[in-house]
Design goal:
This protein has about 240 residues and is α/β, with parallel strands linked by helices. It is built from nine helices and seven strands, in the order βαβαβααβαβαβαβαα. A seven-stranded parallel β-sheet has the order 3-2-4-1-5-6-7, with helices on both faces. Helix 1 packs parallel to helix 2.
């Protein structure tokens, strides 16, 4: 299977922009791309969610959302409050396998961080990745505090035998402070995986054609782009 799981170290770190960037570059190579969102929270029926942003930025992906909950809460909590059935990791894995049959690349974008609960049994995105034997891209913040977040996420992946495909900074500031610049060297150490991208802050507001070019500069060759972590760090010395 060609399935890649996208998680974050928390909420609002840039998962959707990174997902859209990977999708855009894959589409530009002529691949058939599906994006699966197991649980969309904090969005009412009929309102645009994360998949709408991915489609706006990347173009012609197959977008599939399994469950939508209006409260901006963890999926398990949001499902319980509204009386809807929760999303189970087995359901997510099954949907990913189904999409894999007709697509070259399936991107599974989580909600919040890696261990956010999907169901009352404690199922998480990590369980989905394990069931699919899929690698995980971890999207992280740039500045102070991100090293602990990345270390905890990486440890959780290792304990479950799930491979981290790399770390992406979801929103690199226009004027990075000392912590952000130092983190470029420290992130691969605490995360046990290379930095494979850094998107400029505000990339999610770009038109599609411009976004694709930004994605190419912001993602490493393993994800379809031209990003080089050493060159990026050299351009932002601590």
């Amino acid at each position: 299977m060609s399935v890649l799981v996208i998680t974050g170290t928390g909420t609002g770190v840039g998962k959707t922009v990174v997902t859209a960037g990977i999708a855009a570059l894959a589409l530009a190579r002529g691949l058939r791309v599906a994006v699966l969102k197991p649980a969309q929270t904090g969005v009412a029926a009929g309102e645009p969610g994360d998949l709408a942003d991915v489609t706006r930025l990347a173009g012609g992906v197959t977008a599939r959302e399994l469950r939508r909950f209006p409260d901006p809460l963890a999926p398990d909590t949001a499902a319980r409050r509204i009386g809807m059935p929760p999303v189970r990791p087995s359901e997510v894995a099954g949907a990913a396998v189904e999409l894999d049959h007709t697509h070259d690349l399936v991107l599974v974008e989580g909600a919040g961080g890696l261990l956010v609960r999907f169901d009352p049994d404690g199922g998480t995105l990590a369980d989905v990745a394990w069931a699919l034997n899929a690698e995980v891209v971890v999207v992280a913040r740039a500045g102070l505090g991100t090293l602990n977040d990345v270390a905890l996420t990486a440890e959780a992946l290792r304990r479950r035998g799930v491979t981290c495909a790399g770390l992406v900074v979801g929103a690199w500031p226009a004027e990075p402070d000392l912590a952000a610049r130092c983190n470029l060297d420290d992130l691969p150490v605490v995360g046990g995986a290379p930095v494979v991208g850094a998107f400029p802050d505000g990339a999610g507001g770009l038109p599609r054609a411009e976004f694709t070019e930004v994605a190419r500069r912001s993602l490493a060759p393993a994800l379809g782009g031209d990003f080089d972590a050493k060159d990026f760090a050299d351009a932002h010395p601590a």
